[in-house]
Write a structure and sequence with these properties.
mainly alpha
Length: 104
Amino acid sequence: MQKASNSSAAKGLRGWWTSPPRSGPRLIISPVEYRHLRAWGRVRIASAILLTGLGVVTLSFGGNDQKTYGWAIWFLGGAAANAAFGSWELGIARETDQLSGGVS
């Protein structure tokens, strides 16, 4: 029989989710995203811009019915959520850079 190795897989889901070490609301961010905060923050901001464009186009050419406004609210709500989360991630990245004394 082989011994279980002391790898991150042996820690289970909880061990995987808490590496790299972080605290508080930062635990909401998945570990893969947390390792590349700047890239994911920029992707979220770009998707917010795209969703805003889709919402504007929907309002411009969609007509005057409830379905048009529903789709526009859906697009603009997603844009607001992505912009907020992306700017939060970029703020965390800036904060960790300031704490570490430079770009990591």
